[in-house]
Structure formats: C-alpha cells, structure tokens
Task: structure prediction
Amino acid sequence: MVVVVLGLASPAQAGPVSWIKRQVQALRQHRQTLSTLRQIDPLLVPAFKAMKYAHAPYSNAHLGAALTVRRRGLLSYLPLLRNKVVRGFNSESEGDLQICAERAAMAGLPRGLARRNPVRKIAVVSDGVVPTPCGRCLQVLSEVGSPDTCIVAANLQGQQQRYRLRDLLPTTFEPSSMGQLKPHRKLIAQAVQAYRKGQIRGINHYRPPLGAVVQTEDGQTYLGMVIKDTASTFTPATQTPLDQVALRQAMEGRRRLGVRTVVIAGQGTDSGLPVPTADERQHLVDMNPAATVVLYNPATRKGAVMTARDLLPHAYQR
Result:
C-alpha cells in the first residue's frame, strides 16, 4: 500500500531524507507564494486559499476569488471587522454547467442590498495566466458592484493586473456619423426588423428587446432576438446567430468561419444606444475580436460603429 501526502510518496517509498527535503521545499514554496500575493494585495491570500478547492477536470485551470463588502449593523463601525470577505472557486461539470470563481464568491451576496452596499474589491488568482473576469462574471459584478469596484488579478508567479470595473465594461458609446453608418444600412434594417418582431411577440418580458444580425465573411446573414425560455433564463439577441455560425463552422470543418459584422438594434437607457450584456460581449470577442459591431437605436436613428474588442477591452483569455 502506497501512502501519498501532498502528492509525494511516503518516506518508505521515496527514502526518508529525500521525502523530508521535498516536504520542506513544498512548504517554502507555499510560504513564498503567500508572501508574493500578500505584497500585491492582501485580498489575494484568501483567494489563493480558496483555489485549492477548485474542480477543473476539463480546462485544468484552477482559480480562486475573494471579495469584500462592508458589513451591516454595529460591526460596520469597527475598523477591523467592518469588511466582510467572501471566497469562491471555480467548478466544472459536463455541458455548460461551469461556475467561475468570481461568480461563486458573488453567489452568496444579497442582490437587494447591492446598490446600498456594493462589492468594494474582488481579487482573483490563477495557477496559469493572469485571469481577467469573463463576460458572465462581469455582468454579475456590474449588478452587485459599482463602476469603481476594484478588480485585482494575479497568478502564482506574481504577475498581476489591476482594473476598475468601468475599465473592463464600458457602458457609454459615442454616436458615429451617418457616413460611418451608411455602409451597414442593409444590415441595420434587418436588425431593426428582428427587434420589431421581438416587441410584437413579447417574448422578452423582463429584458429590453433587442434584435441582431450577424454577417460572415462570405456574405451569409443570421438573425436573432432576445428570448426568454421556460427556465427563466434569457437567450441574448446575438447568441442564436453566433451559435448558427459556429454550427456551420463545425459542419464544414473550418477552424474559423469569419464573423465580419454584427448589428444590434434596440433602445438603451434614456433612449440611448442599446448596450449588450457582458456575456454577449464575451461571445462576440470569442468569435472574432476584430469584427465590426454596430449599435443602433431605431427611435433616435443614431448608432455607433466599433469593434468587438471595444466592447470588452480586456476580454477574458486563458
């Protein structure tokens, strides 16, 4: 019978001296990692401790996260206890049942108090590249945090990045001139048509209706709109057409069927431009970060032309 401790064979198997040396070396490395992360930001330490529970049999990317919110009640007046730390780690299952470390940490926060008590800071640590929160995590963070929420990301080698939520998820876009919109007028008309259908059918219920059209490099177009299914989840306007492109790509054996242009039509807040959700933006960047994206409001006849990368300037990458 072989006894394994910290992934190493027992002294009887590896030799007493060699086994002890490895244990001491592992302990020193662990302390050095803690010291490195603590110097970057103390919140990375609980994130690192949560990472050991990560379950990632498919991606083999292990992440831990920790966030701080201000406590409520009498504890909020005590300097050493006023900030509550919540941890999370990533967990993967078959299918699209993946929970990121950031969302796991945010899952226990009461949404109803988020505006009055937003997340002040979130730290993420990975055993691979420096992690940037994905679109899904950014969408949740935008609802429980604030534009000034600090995001600290690091890996075990001490590489780091520090952002504000406003840097990762821009919410305002300057309208483009009519000359810039003119080359896309046919696609805009198709996206507006999909938007109108969504309004008439009333299948969006809670989310603002949006219509979208995706055009590939060979000129094929795919239409989409916001859909609410029976599980009370939403299909973003861009997801269906991009899924259709991905399916065609797989059936034809192509590594990439180029997405050239994406137009999203609808009304934003205060009759501004439509703002795609962060998970929609991640979807677009995954397909083609250089794709042209047009946001168009049919009520004001204003629009903005940009690239997918402009929607998510520091997109998640592994």
Observations:
- The chain has a mean pLDDT of 86.
